[in-house]
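Box 4.2: Ligand-aware structure prediction
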Amino acid sequence: MRRFLIGGNWKLNKGIIETSEFATYLLKKDLNINNIDVFIAPPFTSIPKALEVFANSTISIGAQNMFWEEKGAYTGEISPKFLKELGVQWVIIGHSERRAIFGETDEWVRKKLNMALHLGLKVVICIGETEEEREEGKEKEVVENQLKGAIEGVEFDASMISIAYEPIWAIGTGKTAKPSDAEEMHNLIRELLGEKGDKVRIIYGGSVKVHNAEELLLQENIDGALIGGASLDYESFAEILKIAGEI
Ligand code: PEP
């Protein structure tokens, strides 16, 4: 039995004041999330505040990115070792915005994955096709290549890795994959993971909102969600956590 994993990806939103306010309001809710795993990934500069305000809760803190070296002459990069030192438990790698805007490649994703695992950080690897690739019927090929590019040759414990299937056309657009289409892709990803497939959590991301969360989470191979926009609002994030906790 795989526990649900719900991640909130705040992207470049919420400084320390908003982080603190969000936690105050969210933690006042009756969350009942003992049977699921939850993390929030704020911007780097809000991470220490997030760690402080969520310290007495079961909500963990993640980072939205990291570099593949621990230290050195890499101006402007973020050391995974220092994230770990802060108390960060999760890291998102290969988000489509990083691939599209910052040129992140499968090779970078693999290098980051190896380093994160070496340091004991839990990883969410994001993969997913563009609208054009889906229209051309190439979505399975694209997802397979990204998955292989990220994990081929990497030794990992299934509990340390989750895959987020995030069709790019569904991210931040309000368009969601049909639960049956998402399920089909999750099933394929599970098969591609081979013997570890049963244990690795495969979560869905792409305009998950209160109104569609249940239908998506009820799919057999959807083990949670990576949530952008709806994680910024404590009411909707709390509602989605409640839905997940009650399934
Ligand atoms: C994301 O950023 O990973 C994401 C899924 O965003 P949204 O929920 O806003 O589509």
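In the box above, the bound molecule is phosphoenolpyruvate. The first helix runs from residue 16 to 28.
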